[in-house]
Amino acid sequence: MLWRIDPASDEPLYAQLVAQAHLAAARGELAPGDRLPAARELAESLELNVHTVLKAYQQLRDEGLIELRRGRGAVVTAAAARDLSPVEAALAAFVTAAREARLSPEATTTLVKEAMKR
Question: Mind giving me the DSSP string for 19-40?
Fold first, then answer.
């Protein structure tokens, strides 16, 4: 899995990592039993503070996506496997409607974020 962050984004860095892990698990790029990189290693490769990565890992643990095991690190749980095909189909229809309405990507993203808060 390739980790990417956008320092210019309004979304906190740890939240970007959490979102990427969820998406990778849903797409099958992360399978149950897979190990995530050590927090220090990931922080170094992304030029982040190690506490940012640890916060992301703790949230992923709290959400049930990973287990944090002493000496083994972060391991993906069986609960991580999900079928996103219905969400992807709905998203494709939403993107088509947004384009037809000539909404900018920013406005479309804002709509999604607001809808997720409800």
Answer: HHHHHHHHTTSS-TTPBPPPHH
